[in-house]
Design goal:
The strands form two sheets. An eight-stranded mixed beta sheet has the order 13-12-11-7-10-9-8-14. A six-stranded parallel beta sheet has the order 3-2-1-4-5-6, with helices on both faces. The N and C termini lie far apart (52 Å). The longest helix is centred in the last third of the chain and has 20 residues. The chain has two domains: 133 residues, 3-Layer(aba) Sandwich (Rossmann fold); 183 residues, Dihydrodipicolinate Reductase, domain 2 (2-Layer Sandwich). It is an alpha/beta fold. The protein contains eleven helices and 14 strands.
């Protein structure tokens, strides 16, 4: 470690910005918040006062005044790409909330700008960084768990009609999709980080109840390069909310149930009949909750070591390609293979692709 303190700024001071500010504050001596930006001056001023930093009217003003090492992009999804590009043009690394952009085309544009600038981009997928997930990937790599066979990821949440009164929510143009894009993405990103490259997706999506243009439910059957199969379900109409993952390996079942973040206590491990109990290997090391502090720590560690910060745009693209494949399969009624959605494909430039199989909600 170099002992360097990295300066950070936050663009967009809505609810998620507080988690970013708290993560920065949790790492004194390693990270320091130096400014905030929001299109609503009153909200920016209140946030800046709470965290003891100046507020700026625009990102350009902030970059001109303080030029931080990292800019945490916490605005609605439709503005992520232009703000990240503005950071890269100034030689500053953006740390972008999920979903990072609205399409694979946008992500490829971001990756090209990243390469040209020589400045890394990180996507916020904080569930990868809790100690349970880190331990699971290590035990799988070490062969303790055996081959992955079957898995599931379920994000069963509830958002009422009032939630979608915010103009950008439920819109293909501004949010990019429904729970597949903006809610369940954390759980299945963790699933993908464990099981590796997916090969085929067969999916369904529906608008069951909410006043949106996007889906409020999706379900996918996924095959992986390892031969493992998995189900992925995303919902915003489930009154008993939960986030669940289950991995059935040759030697053990590993399960996680939480809501918006987990600790080691949320994981269970069950040995296969006749196999040694793997809990001794599991119950080692510090209990690190999933969350923004864990990922920010990993980002700073990578910067100290001159490595790309996690989650880099290559890893992000695999998750975003999965999102596009879910929509493409659901809306066309056929399986989608990895690598199929490229430039010229209907779902490359928009997750809506050929169009949802339900009528638009119309103007509000």
């Amino acid at each position: 470690m170099t002992g360097r303190t990295y300066t950070c700024a936050i663009v967009g001071t809505g609810a998620i910005a507080g988690a970013h500010a708290a993560a920065i504050a949790a790492l004194p001596g390693r990270a320091r918040l130096v400014g905030a930006v929001d299109v609503e001056p009153g909200r920016a001023a209140a946030f800046a006062a709470k965290w003891g930093v100046p507020a700026y009217p625009t990102l350009a003003d902030l970059l001109g005044a303080v030029r931080p090492d990292l800019v945490h992009v916490c605005t609605p999804p439709g503005s992520h790409l232009p703000l990240a590009l503005e950071c890269l043009a100034a030689g500053v690394s953006p740390v972008v909330e999920k979903p990072p952009v609205l399409s694979l085309a946008d992500l490829d544009r971001l990756r090209a700008a990243e390469a040209a600038a020589g400045v890394p981009v990180a996507t916020v997928f904080q569930h990868r960084f809790g100690s349970g997930a880190v331990r699971l990937r290590r035990l799988l790599a070490d062969g303790v768990l055996g081959r992955p066979l079957v898995a599931s990821a379920s994000t069963l949440w509830f958002r009422d009609d009032d939630y979608f009164a915010v103009p950008w929510r439920g819109s293909w143009e501004l949010e990019g999709g429904g729970p597949t894009m903006g809610h369940g993405i954390h759980q299945f990103d963790l699933l993908l980080s464990v099981l590796g490259r997916w090969t085929t997706v067969t999916a369904l999506a529906a608008r069951q109840a909410r006043p949106t243009d996007t889906e409020d439910v999706s379900a996918a059957l996924v095959r992986f390069g390892s031969g493992a199969v998995a189900t992925v379900v995303n919902s915003l109409v489930s009154p008993r909310q939960t986030s669940r993952l289950r991995f059935d390996f040759e030697h053990a079942t590993v399960e996680l149930e939480h809501l918006y973040g987990y600790t080691d206590a949320d994981w269970t491990v069950t040995a296969a009949p006749g196999r040694p109990d793997p809990t001794t290997a599991w119950a080692t090391g510090e209990d690190v909750p999933s969350g923004h502090p864990a990922q920010l720590t990993a980002i700073l560690d990578a910067l100290d070591d001159h490595r790309p910060p996690p989650v880099d745009t290559a890893a992000t693209r695999e998750t975003m390609e999965f999102v596009a494949a879910v929509y493409a399969s659901a809306f066309t009624g056929r399986p989608v293979t990895a690598g199929e959605i490229t430039e010229g494909h209907p779902f490359y430039g928009s997750m809506a692709g050929t169009g949802a199989p339900w009528p638009a909600r119309g103007p509000r």
